[in-house]
Write a structure and sequence with these properties.
Layout: H1 2-22, H2 24-27, H3 52-65, H4 68-71, H5 97-104, H6 108-117, H7 123-145, H8 148-154, H9 158-206, H10 212-215, E1 220-223, E2 233-236, H11 241-262, H12 270-275, H13 278-285, H14 290-307, H15 313-338, H16 343-364, H17 370-395, H18 403-417, E3 443-444, E4 447-448, E5 451-453, E6 459-461
Antiparallel strand pairs: 1-2, 3-4, 5-6
C-alpha cells in the first residue's frame, strides 16, 4: 500500500509540474509593459501595457535623448553610458570595461611609449608650452646679455634657489591637493544625485495604484495601528499614474537644470519645455536657481499627495527625505561652484613660481652652455607650471566632469523604474498571485527557471 501511495504522489507531482510549464506562458506575461529581451517562446504573450500617462512620459524622455545637443555627441556604449573614443581615456567620460582595459591593462613599457608618442595630445602641454617657450628664450638671452662676472657670481647661489624650489613645490602640491579634493566631493555629489533619482522614482512607482486594469488590484493595504485604530487594516488610495509621471518629470527636470546651471552657465530651456507645462516652464526660468524652483514644485506635489492621504505616512516621509537630500546636493554644488580655493593663495603661487623660474637660468648660466641652460630651464618650467595647471584645471570640477552622461544615467534610472512590475495585494489577506518573470539568463535547456510566490506566501524555485 505504501508503494501505491508513493506512486500516486509521484503522478500528482508530475501532473502539477507539466501543468505549470504549460501555463507558464500566461503567467509570465503578468508584468508592467512588455518584457525586455523576452524569450522567443513567450514573444506572443498579451501583456498589460502601461497607462497612457506613463507612455506619454516615456515618449518625452525619448525626446530629451533625441535633442541635438545630445545627439551631436559620439555614440554611446551599449552596456554603459560611456563614450568609445579612439583617443586616450579621459576623466570627462565614464569608463566601462573596455575603457579600463585600454587605460590600465597594458605593460609599463607600453604605457611609457604611448605617453611619449601621444604627448602632442596632452592638455597640460597645450596649456604650458608658451611658458616653457618664454623661459627657453629667457635662458638664451640671459647667457648672451649679462656680463660674465655676474654669471660667475650667480653660479654660487644654487643653495638659496634650491631652498626656494622646495618651498614652492610644497605650495604647489598643497594647492593641487585642495583642488582635487573639490573634484572628489563634486563627483560624490553627482553620484548621490544619480542614486537619489533612482531611489525616489522607484518609491514613487511603488506607491502607484494600478487598478484592476493593470494588475488586478487597486490601492495598497497598510496597518492602521500607528493611527490608533487597534491595528486594523485599511486601504490607502495610492498615487495615480498621472501623478507618478508628474513627480518623475520633476526628478528628470531637476537633474538637467542642475547640470545646466554649472556647465558654462547654460540657460537653455529645451528640456524643460519637453517635460513641464508652459506655465511651469515660464515660472522656473524666471527664478534665480532653476534647480531649486523645480525642487520646490516636486516638494509641493509630494506634500499635496501626503495631505490627500494618497501616500501612507511612511511613503511620504521616505519621499520627503529623498527630496531633502536632493536639496542638499544642489546646495553643496552651489557651495563648490561659488567658493573657490582662496584666490590669494593662487596668486601667491603664480608670483613665487614666476620669480623662481626667471632666476633659474641666471643661476645655471655659469655652469653649462647656453642651449643646455635654456633646455633645462624650459623642462623645469614645464614640470612646475604643469603641476600648477593640474590644480587650476580641476578647481572648477563641474567643467571637467561627465555631467551630461551622469544626467543621462540618472534619467535612465528613472525610466527603468517605470518598467518594474507592480504586484497586486501582496500585503492583503487575498491569495498571492502566481507570478513568474523570466529572463534570457535564467533559461536552461529551453525551460524557464523562475522564482515565484506560492499560495502560502513564500518564495520557492520551480
Amino acid at each position: 500500500m505504501f508503494r501505491i501511495f508513493l506512486g500516486f504522489v509521484f503522478i500528482l507531482n508530475t501532473y502539477r509540474t507539466v501543468a505549470f510549464h504549460l501555463t507558464a506562458k500566461t503567467r509570465s506575461c503578468r508584468t508592467y509593459g512588455p518584457l525586455p529581451n523576452a524569450h522567443s517562446e513567450f514573444a506572443d504573450c498579451s501583456v498589460a501595457y502601461a497607462p497612457s500617462e506613463i507612455e506619454l512620459f516615456q515618449r518625452q524622455l525619448a525626446s530629451v535623448r533625441a535633442l541635438p545637443r545630445l545627439q551631436n555627441n559620439r555614440s554611446l556604449s551599449r552596456t554603459l553610458l560611456c563614450y568609445k573614443p579612439n583617443e586616450c581615456p579621459t576623466f570627462r567620460r565614464l569608463f566601462d570595461h573596455e575603457t579600463w582595459l585600454r587605460y590600465s591593462g597594458k605593460t609599463a613599457i607600453v604605457r611609457c611609449i604611448e605617453g611619449i608618442t601621444m604627448w602632442r595630445t596632452s592638455v597640460i602641454l597645450r596649456a604650458v608650452w608658451p611658458v616653457s617657450a618664454v623661459i627657453f628664450c629667457w635662458g638664451l638671452v640671459v647667457q648672451s646679455v649679462l656680463p660674465k662676472s655676474i654669471l660667475e657670481a650667480a653660479a654660487n647661489q644654487q643653495l638659496p634657489l634650491s631652498l626656494q624650489g622646495s618651498a614652492i613645490g610644497l605650495l604647489l602640491v598643497f594647492h593641487t591637493n585642495s583642488a582635487y579634493r573639490r573634484l572628489e566631493e563634486a563627483r560624490k555629489l553627482m553620484s548621490k544625485l544619480v542614486f537619489l533619482s533612482q531611489e525616489a522614482s522607484t518609491k514613487i512607482m511603488a506607491a502607484v495604484a494600478w487598478g484592476d486594469s493593470a494588475h488586478g488590484g487597486g490601492g495598497s493595504s497598510i496597518s492602521e495601528g500607528s493611527r490608533g485604530d487597534g491595528g486594523s487594516r485599511a486601504t490607502v488610495p495610492g498615487l495615480s499614474a498621472a501623478t507618478a509621471a508628474a513627480l518623475c518629470r520633476y526628478l528628470v527636470a531637476f537633474v538637467w537644470t542642475l547640470r545646466d546651471e554649472y556647465r558654462d552657465g547654460d540657460d537653455r530651456r529645451d528640456i524643460l519645455e519637453l517635460l513641464l507645462p508652459t506655465a511651469e516652464v515660464a515660472w522656473v526660468t524666471a527664478q534665480r536657481s532653476r534647480s531649486s524652483a523645480v525642487l520646490s514644485l516636486l516638494r509641493r506635489a509630494v506634500r499635496h499627495e501626503g495631505v490627500a492621504e494618497r501616500l501612507s505616512a511612511t511613503e511620504y516621509l521616505l519621499l520627503e527625505g529623498d527630496v531633502a537630500s536632493l536639496g542638499a546636493v544642489a546646495s553643496n554644488c552651489e557651495r563648490l561652484f561659488t567658493s573657490p580655493i582662496p584666490p590669494t593663495m593662487s596668486r601667491h603661487n603664480t608670483r613665487s613660481l614666476t620669480l623662481w623660474l626667471l632666476a633659474l637660468p641666471v643661476v645655471l648660466a655659469g655652469t653649462m652652455p647656453p642651449i643646455i641652460n635654456a633646455a633645462w630651464s624650459a623642462t623645469t618650467a614645464f614640470i612646475f607650471v604643469g603641476i600648477d595647471e593640474l590644480g587650476v584645471q580641476v578647481e572648477q570640477p563641474f567643467r571637467i566632469m561627465p555631467l551630461w552622461e551622469l544626467c543621462l544615467l540618472a534619467q535612465a534610472n528613472v525610466e527603468e523604474s517605470l518598467s518594474v512590475p507592480s504586484f497586486a495585494n501582496l500585503d492583503s489577506d487575498s491569495p498571492a498571485p502566481n507570478y513568474c518573470h523570466e529572463w534570457p539568463s535564467l533559461f536552461y535547456r529551453g525551460l524557464p527557471s523562475c522564482v515565484h510566490l506560492s499560495f502560502e506566501g513564500t518564495f520557492r524555485m520551480v
